[in-house]
Write a structure and sequence with these properties.
Layout lengths: L1 H8 L12 H29 L25 H15 L7 H23 L9 H22 L7 E3 L7 E3 L3 H20 L7 H18 L2 H7 L10 H19 L8 H18 L3 H7 L1 H20 L9 H7 L4 H21 L5
Antiparallel strand pairs: 1-2
Length: 360
């Protein structure tokens, strides 16, 4: 929106031309989302408290979580609002990618909202039935996959880039649709599984989003893409504005979500953030790098799979409790220690992922 105004205002004052640069709009997007979160955070929390929309705690979970019962949740609506408003304000809405990633993020947020609403407002312990949730996620994921496949204008946009190897990419052809669907839906659920401690899922999402923003800027710049040996994706640079908005919104929400949390984001936030990261990774052809940088999400998901499989096959549990963060809590680690150490692991993994820009 502001990009359109900047083009008009530049005719009156050349200084407005600065706002046509992606980097400046990305900075402004992050600041806008951050300030929105700070300003609206207390309002959202008060409304959730007034409506008695509070978190329910698993009876078989760590005892340290029992005092959290009743903490306002569904705060992910604040993240969504900040992301959408900031992106619409600062991004180029004519971009073929911006609208796709925005719609996917909002759609998964709606799915999470329905699940949270049924659990917390209608007091339905099951929430949105798993089969219906998966069906809704699959529908959105497939629509996004077909859309991205349809707007692809070059073979590189549908090839699987192998990181750390120069000019090594595997053409996916029609399997691109299935692969994209798996990345979006899988990442969405992985972030949701990780969202079990105060700030545990938000900060890694911020870090990974920031790194993907760097990848998008490089991929969308023909000179940088050629220099770094990555595929040039026309228009991908605009995604940096969205990534910046996500990072700003996430940091703003973390102000209220950090230990001890004043509000939880719920499925409305976790499902949306995961889907957004997956969609961005697909657009910039960095799905395998997302697997590395989002290693925390992968490990948490694998821990659940191993726990369920082991218990069904042998009757024994691999971990004291799954997802993995609960295992360490039951081993005696204080919640802040688990959170910060998992954040540190994510920082390391993000740096390893970013190194792929030069190590080839």
């Amino acid at each position: 929106m502001f990009l359109f105004l900047a083009d008009l205002l530049t005719e009156l004052f050349s200084g407005f031309n600065a706002f046509t640069y992606i980097t400046l709009r990305a900075v402004m997007g992050a600041l806008t989302a951050l300030v929105m979160s700070f300003v609206l955070g207390p309002i959202v929390i008060r409304r959730l408290i007034n409506r008695q929309i509070g978190q329910t705690i698993r009876a078989d979970g760590p005892e340290s979580h029992l005092p959290k019962a009743g903490t306002p949740t569904m705060g992910g609506a604040l993240i969504l609002l900040a992301i959408v408003f900031s992106t619409v304000l600062w991004a180029d809405l004519e971009s073929r990618y911006i609208m796709v990633v925005l719609l996917v993020t909002v759609a998964f947020g709606i799915i999470g909202w329905v699940d949270d609403y049924r659990k917390l407002v209608l007091q339905d312990p099951e929430g949105l039935a798993a089969r219906w949730k998966f069906l809704a996620q699959s529908a959105v994921g497939l629509i996004a996959a077909f859309s991205l496949y349809g707007i692809a204008s070059a073979p590189a946009e549908t090839a699987l880039l192998i990181p750390y190897f120069k000019d090594l990419a595997i053409p996916l052809g029609g399997t691109y649709v299935i692969f994209t669907y798996l990345v979006i839906v899988g990442t969405s659920n992985a972030v949701n599984l990780t969202d079990g401690l105060d700030g545990l899922a938000v900060m890694p999402s911020v870090l990974v989003s920031g790194a993907l923003g760097i990848f998008s800027y490089a991929a969308g710049n023909v000179i940088f893409a050629d220099y770094l040996g990555i595929p040039y994706i026309e228009g991908a640079g605009e995604i940096m504005v969205f990534c910046a908005a996500l990072s700003g919104a996430g940091l703003g929400f973390l102000w209220f979500n950090t230990y001890p949390a004043q509000v939880f984001m719920g499925d409305i936030g976790a499902l949306a953030l995961g889907a957004a990261l997956g969609t961005v990774a697909v657009i910039v052809r960095q799905e395998l790098i997302l697997f590395i940088m989002g290693g925390l999400f992968v490990i948490e998901t694998v821990s659940v799979i191993l726990q369920v499989a082991s218990f069904k096959l042998t009757g024994k549990r691999v971990f004291r409790m799954a997802p993995l963060h609960h295992h360490y809590e039951l081993k005696g680690w204080a919640e802040p220690k688990v959170i910060v150490r998992f954040w540190i692991i994510t920082v390391i993994l993000v740096l390893v992922g970013l190194a792929s820009l030069k190590i080839r």
